[in-house]
Amino acid sequence: MKKIVPIVIVGILSLFILLGVAAFFLFFHIGIFEVLGIQYESWTSILLFIGLSFVADAVTKVLFIFMKTRYFLATGQHFKQYHDAIFRIFLDFIAVHLIDEWMTSVHFSIFSEIAFVLIIYLIDASLFRKKEQDRRS
């Protein structure tokens, strides 16, 4: 009995943390959708869009790392910060545009696609810089 109680308590706490993080991401994305005027048909379409965007983000990061190491380091050129920003925004835009074209239940205008990609890039860049600053100090 002494082993079961801590396991149940840790399990319940981890479940609450997981649900809290999922709720944060869900409401964060829905808030951005409302501000940008993105139309969606159901909650399942939102969840599918978020899932596909995570997959597309992973693919774009792999492509980005491949291009950064394969081309720029092989040619001796330095991958400057603005090249990094332009390339990542371009890959993210392609990913969001392809998901928008593929999914008929989520409707983006071209301006909302651009704004969505820029917002996501700015959030990602600020989180990455914060982690990088924490490592240096």
Automatic annotation (TrEMBL):
The keyword Transmembrane appears for this protein: yes
InterPro entries: YrvL
Record field: transmembrane: 7-30, 42-64, 85-104, 110-128
Keyword RNA-binding part of the UniProt annotation: no
Keyword vocabulary terms for this entry: Membrane, Transmembrane, Transmembrane helix
Protein name (record): Regulatory protein YrvL
Organism from which the protein derives: Paenibacillus alvei (Bacillus alvei)
